[in-house]
Amino acid sequence: xxxxxxxxxxxxxLEPVLPAPAEEQNGTDSAKAPKVNCEERNTTGIxxxxxxxxNVSQDLMEFLNPNxxxxxxxxxxxxxxxxxxxxxxxxNSLPRAFPTLRFLALDASQHSSxxxxxxxVAVPNILLFQGAKPMARFNHTDRTLETLKDFIFNxxxxxxxxxxVVTEEDWAGPLPSVLTKGIDWLLLFSVLFLASFVMYATIxxxxxxxxxxxxxxxxxx
Length: 221
Fold this sequence. Notes:
By secondary structure, the protein is of the alpha/beta class. The chain is built from 8 helices and 5 strands; from the N terminus they run H-H-E-E-H-E-H-E-E-H-H-H-H. The chain has helices at about 5-15, 20-30, 80-95, 110-120, 145-155, 170, 185-210, 215-220, and strands at about 50-55, 70-75, 100-105, 125-130, 135-140.
């Protein structure tokens, strides 16, 4: 109940609090260590930072410089995928959050060779390129502006602008946020090829059976 007892009660409170600032600082330093050293592009003279969508005749490799260390975030999507549509407004806002980086998007159904090359078997699929080399893949199922910001920061150490949010313009485009009806020509071709192969194999088997001695008589009986 005296001064000595009060001092004794304070000691257990002070001891565990002292190391906390040093541990927090170490955790912050390790989180900010970039995995990819990106060369930030010069934004002088650029008034509008927006996403660029590649058309069917444009090759992704033409937009990636293998001799540089600048970074590009590339989205593989399809316009009839509901997950791609829900991601669209968040991805549209990224160029304003990271003006020193480049952002591209391409329809995976129109660039099937690239999808095979980079293993984008499912959409939406996001790859971070340094030059022309893929360095990291976004694997989170929660695809929002905040999770995308965290992904880019953890990989590059580049901080996003804090005042950037998803706006009505981002819902409008350039990446469509409304599902469009379309035909997956690659899937259709695969189904037709498989059906043709089965039909050919069946006809071929019947032809061989008639040519084998004894098979014809068994059929007739």
